[in-house]
Predict the structure.
Amino acid sequence: MPTSFITFRLHGTIPAATGRELQAERHRAYAAGTEHRRAQKQFFAAFDAVLDRAPIGPRYFDSEKMAEALAGEILMLEETGFAVLGFAILPNHVHLVVLLPETSNLSFAKAIDLLHLRTGTACRRLVRPKLPPEAEFWQVGWHEYEAQDEAELTRLLAYVRGNARAAGLPARFQEWPYVNE
């Protein structure tokens, strides 16, 4: 299994009109003949730029308690056989770089679904007074991008390490416990 770069975002963090425009741009890129991986990269860059600006929605991971709960759940992946190569927790989203060895009997998608569920459950407990029981915590699904080689993996890890700084976030988002290398 290749190494994957994954992004989870909090529910309601991208305006609906912006989401539709990002999807339309990706479809235009495909229609113009842009290679699939390149179109994916362009889509993600625009998508992540919107998350970094945080125009709307919750910013639960401004709370250290929430960020630590999320980091703990991410690190628990290693107990299931994943290698967590890096992650960054930003106020409204998280980036992970993970590897599931080919020798593993785990289903990658099911394990990431379980992480999505576990982190949402753990974090919901901490925001219960602010969040009605029927409200979503994470946006359904996640963005995944597979590293094709070591050079691309190096670029992805550098992106994860530098994302908080590039987004103009305070120093505490640029170091552990918010960034793991």
